[in-house]
């Protein structure tokens, strides 16, 4: 059965408490579970963390993308979850990424300084298209440097 592809873009506020080690452990857990679930559900995408916010792009069959977003909304580590876009797409922007992650390193911060200057790294001020483009460009850079 050929299922049409959809792209979902959202951002949320970080509700992970504790020190840097606790934060890193929680993000590692989010990524591990996302990669397992996404591979099973034919979802690809990328996750960005910066300045207390997460932004994510999910791509795949509509029913699977909606189910993943429902799990995210119920995860206590995410607060103020805001849907920015849910659109049909013709092809995937993240075909090689069950869940790419950018934003943890200083190098990542430097790479999206232009976006930061215009938004104050406030992901709530970016559109779904801007977040998608940012994550697509950063993951392409990751692939090229790997």
UniProtKB/TrEMBL annotation:
Limits of the BLUF domain: 5-100
Protein name in the entry: BLUF domain-containing protein
Molecular function GO terms recorded: blue light photoreceptor activity; FAD binding
């Amino acid at each position: 059965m050929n299922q049409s592809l959809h792209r979902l873009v959202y951002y949320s506020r970080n509700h992970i408490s504790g020190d840097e080690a606790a934060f890193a452990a929680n993000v590692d857990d989010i990524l591990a579970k996302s990669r397992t679930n996404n591979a099973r559900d034919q979802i690809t995408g990328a996750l960005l963390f910066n300045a207390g916010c997460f932004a994510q792009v999910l791509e795949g069959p509509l029913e699977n993308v909606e189910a993943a977003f429902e799990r995210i909304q119920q995860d206590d580590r995410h607060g103020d979850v805001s849907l920015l876009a849910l659109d049909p797409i013709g092809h995937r922007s993240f075909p090689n990424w069950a869940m790419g992650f950018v934003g943890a390193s200083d190098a990542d911060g430097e790479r999206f300084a232009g976006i930061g200057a215009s938004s104050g790294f406030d992901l709530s001020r970016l559109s779904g298209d801007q977040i998608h483009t940012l994550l697509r460009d950063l993951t392409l850079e990751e692939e090229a440097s790997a």
